[in-house]
Amino acid sequence: MRNRGFNGLTGFRRLIIILVLGIWGILFTAWVTKPPELPSDVIIIRPLPEGKNPYQREYDEMLKPAVMITTITGRGTGVIIPGSLVHQSISSTGTYILTAAHVVGKYSSVDVTFYDYSHQDTETLRASIVLTDTGKDLALIRVIRNIGDIRVKDIYSAKLAPKDYTPYLFAPVWAVGCSLGLPPRPSFGHLCAFAVDSWEVSAPILPGNSGGGVFAKRTDVPSQDGNRSTYELIGIAVWVRLYQDQLVTTMAGVVPIGEIYRFLDGVPGFKGSNVQKRTIEPLND
C-alpha cells in the first residue's frame, strides 16, 4: 500500500498531531527561554576597579544605600538615610532605613540585608520598627550594628532632596530596588504625573521594589571646583498601576519627599534640614 503521508490522514488524526506538536513547541520554548534562577544573596551587579567606573557616583549615591527587607510573607526594599537626622531623638544609635509601611506590615522586627559591592559580600541583620504611617505608606526601621559582629563595614546613606524640591514633568529619575526579590538594581524613567501626596514615574517598578528609593540628579551643588552634580532621594516607591489585572510597571506611584519629611517629623526631635550631606554611616563603638 502506498504511504499517504500527512495529507492522507483523517481530520481527527491531523488534529491530534497538530496539538501534540503545538504542546511540544510551547514546552520547548519555555525551557530554552526560562531565565536562570539566582539565589537572593548573589550580587549580580559587579563594580569595576577603583577609578575605572564612569558611574561610580551613581553606585555610591543610589545603589549602595539600598537594602533588602525580608519578612515571613515577602521581600521589599529600603533606603538608608543619614543617621544624624535621628540619632539625637532616639536613645540608641544605629542605621536608619526608610521603606514602605506595607513592606514591614504589622511585624515588630524584620531582616535587613546589606550589600558590600567591593568585596562581593552580604550580611543580614535584624531591624526593629521605629515608626510607621499606613496612610502615607511609610516606615522607619533601625538596625543596631556592633563593630565586632559585622562584615559589611561601609554603609552609605542617601542624600535627601530639600523640603521645597520642585518636581517637573519629564524630569529624569532613577528607581533602585530589589526587583522580584533579587539584589538591588536600577531602572530609569521620568516624572510623569503629580497629585498632592503622590507622584507617578515611568521608571519600571516590579514586585520587590516597594520601599526603594527614587532619585533625581541635581547639578548645581557648590564645591571647591565649581558646581558639581549629585543624586538626591525625592521619593519612595510604593505602588504600581493595574490594567485588566496586569501590572503596568511603567506607571509607578511614589511618596514624594515633602511627605517623607512630614512623616519623619513624627520622630521626636527629628532634625530635618534643607541641606544634608551624603555620609558614610559611622559604626557603633
Shape: globular
Widest sheet: strand ordering = 1-2-3-6-5-4
Low-confidence stretches: 28-36, 273-285
Distance between the termini: 92 Å
Question: What is the percent of helical residues?
Answer: 10-25%
Strand count, sense and barrel status of the largest sheet are: 6 strands, antiparallel, barrel
Can you write the helix and strand succession as a string?
Answer: HHEEEHEEEEEEEEEEEHE
Radius of gyration from CA coordinates: 24 Å
| β-sheet strand percentage | 35-45%
Number of helices: 4
Q: Indicate the structural class.
A: alpha+beta
The total strand number stands at: 15
- Mean pLDDT across the residues is 79
Can you walk through the features of this model?
This protein is α+β, with helices and mostly antiparallel strands. Helices cover 15% and strands 37% of the residues. It has 4 helices and 15 strands. Strands 1-2-3-6-5-4 form a 6-stranded antiparallel barrel. The longest helix has 23 residues, at 11-33. The radius of gyration is 24 Å and the shape is globular.
Q: What keyword list fits this structure?
A:
285 residues, alpha+beta, 6-stranded antiparallel beta barrel, 15 strands
Outline the secondary-structure elements.
Layout: H1 11-33, H2 56-63, E1 66-70, E2 75-81, E3 95-99, H3 101-104, E4 109-116, E5 121-133, E6 138-143, E7 155-156, E8 159-160, E9 172-177, E10 185-194, E11 199-201, E12 213-221, E13 228-243, E14 246-256, H4 257-264, E15 280-281
Parallel strand pairs: 8-13
Antiparallel strand pairs: 1-2, 1-4, 2-3, 3-6, 4-5, 5-6, 7-15, 9-10, 9-12, 10-11, 11-14, 12-13, 13-14
